[in-house]
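Task 17 of the worksheet. Students: predict the tertiary structure of the chain below and write it out as structure tokens. Keep your answer in the requested format; marks are given for formatting as well as content.
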Amino acid sequence: MGTKNRKALDIALDDPKLQAWRSPVQQELEGLLSELAAFNERIAELARQGHRSHALNVLTAQALSLAGQIDELRCLLVVPKPGR
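Model answer:
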């Protein structure tokens, strides 16, 4: 990345007005990550106990859906390269 582009990116990342929208998104992301960790912990616990029930399938589907939501939020946080 050139010096000019790097400076533009640094300004965009440091300007509170340009970054204010990121805070609620990051907070939501942290909450979803905690929720996903809880799903994964419960799934692992059931798997260790040898469960092959419908509940395990439902938990797995919910965890996958949550992971998709997390990916979508992460995409919002990506800073585009200046000039593209």
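Marker's comment: The mean pLDDT is 80. Helices lie at 3-14, 16-19, 22-48, 54-77.
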